[in-house]
Automatic annotation (TrEMBL):
Pfam families listed in its UniProt record: Peptidase_C14
Annotated family: Belongs to the peptidase C14B family.
Name assigned to this protein: Peptidase C14 caspase domain-containing protein
Entry's Gene Ontology cellular component terms: cytoplasm
Annotated TM spans: none
GO process annotations (BP): proteolysis
GO molecular function, one term: cysteine-type endopeptidase activity
Domain of life: Eukaryota
Start and end residues of each Peptidase C14 caspase domain: 73-313
Organism: Setaria italica
């Protein structure tokens, strides 16, 4: 059984809090100890908590993690959040839970991941330790990479909302940190890319590889990986150096991390929501369809090209066309979120955000048309 630091178990009874003002609507927000950002329930913006206002975490003993699954060489954490009942004045997302189910089927049926080594965190669960809260997602990320060794194949998948917040430590080329929004982001804030990198990327040892698929806005570099691959429409590609200007180390301990995400050119500080009526997310859909359509051992370059074509064609028929049981959870209800022109629910507050194409970032540079995709 695994053990993690006690601060992942939630706020201790009677712990101090601090009050900060939302940077955008000036609402009063309550921040809990140890958090570096908080999401506003009124305008959905994410506000950075100044260092002077942060309350340090109390020193606590280790707690027993709730994840007692077998730790095979292939293991995965899949997170899907509908945000049902959140104070947003709009409906919940339909797609994320279906995304998680289909991703689980892909991993187990196509790549041989043992079902007991796949942890699913969704907000329709009855088990409180299987809800995608900030604490549970943090613990699951630790579980995924803890004790990793040569030959491990690890997968992290997130389907939900993303956000941006101004960087305050000089480790972002564009001046913004990216973040994933747990189901309790209004109470505890989002999970910043700095933490995601520290928890899941840096511990990867030689011979261990992590593939992440993130289906959320503002997710292009949410693992804070040092290299970003730009692929032009004519097929020309090149790696961009995104190592932090501050010199902070964002690489691994010898392993490899690769992120498939969506590139968005939106410049808003709002967490944005894809089509609430879509039953599958565009990134998840295009990734699974591309993997299913391409032969085993397909290169990363070819996989990206296939994903781009599927997204450009508006989904290419949906999960109902997938072979076998991969798309079984939604054969009768599939509708793909059209990120090429989706209306932002918060368009009165910020411009719509368009997800343009699949994105690839990595802990190391490689020839995308020579290196085979192996999960």
């Amino acid at each position: 059984m695994s053990h993690f630091g006690g601060h992942f178990g939630g706020r201790p009874h009677g712990a101090a809090t601090t009050t900060v003002r939302c940077k955008y609507c000036r609402a009063s927000l309550t921040a809990i100890p140890g958090e570096r950002a908080i999401q506003c329930a009124h305008c959905n913006c994410v506000t950075r908590i100044r260092r002077a206002d942060r309350i340090p975490l109390p020193v606590m003993g280790p707690m027993t993690a709730p994840f007692q699954r077998a730790r095979g060489k292939k293991r995965a954490v899949l997170v899907g959040i509908t945000y049902a009942g959140m104070r947003r004045g709009c409906g919940e997302l339909r797609g994320p839970i279906n995304d998680v189910k289909c991703m689980r089927n892909l991993l187990c049926q196509r790549f041989g991941f043992p079902s007991e080594c796949v942890i699913m965190l969704t907000d329709d669960q009855r088990d409180p330790f299987r809800l995608p809260t900030k604490d549970n997602i943090r613990m699951a990320m630790h579980w995924l990479v803890q004790g990793c060794s040569y030959g491990d194949s690890l997968v992290f998948h997130f389907s939900g909302l993303g956000a941006q917040v101004a960087d305050d430590d000089g480790d972002e080329v564009d001046g913004y940190d990216e973040a994933l929004c747990p189901m309790d982001a209004f109470q505890k804030g989002p999970i910043l890319d700095d933490e995601i990198n520290e928890v899941m990327v840096r511990p990867l040892v030689h011979g261990a590889r992590l593939h992440a698929v993130v289906d959320a806005c503002y997710s292009a570099t949410v693992l804070d990986l040092p290299f970003l691959c730009r692929v032009a429409r004519n097929g020309y590609w090149q790696w961009e150096d995104h190592r932090p200007p501050s010199g902070a180390w964002k690489g691994t301990s010898g392993g490899q991390a690769v992120l498939f995400s969506g590139y968005s050119d939106g410049k808003s500080n709002f967490a944005v929501m894809p089509d609430a009526y879509a039953s599958v997310g565009a990134m998840t859909h295009s990734f699974i369809r591309a993997v299913e359509c391409e032969p085993r051992g397909v290169t990363y370059g070819r996989l990206l090209s296939s994903m781009r074509t599927i997204m450009k064609n508006g989904g290419g028929g949906g999960f109902g066309d997938l072979q076998g049981p991969i798309g079984a959870p939604i054969h009768q209800q599939h509708q793909v979120a059209n990120f090429s022109g989706v209306q932002n629910y918060y368009s009165l507050l910020s411009p719509p955000v368009m997800l343009q194409e699949p994105n690839l970032s990595s802990s190391e540079m490689f020839d995308i048309h020579r290196k085979p995709f192996v999960m």
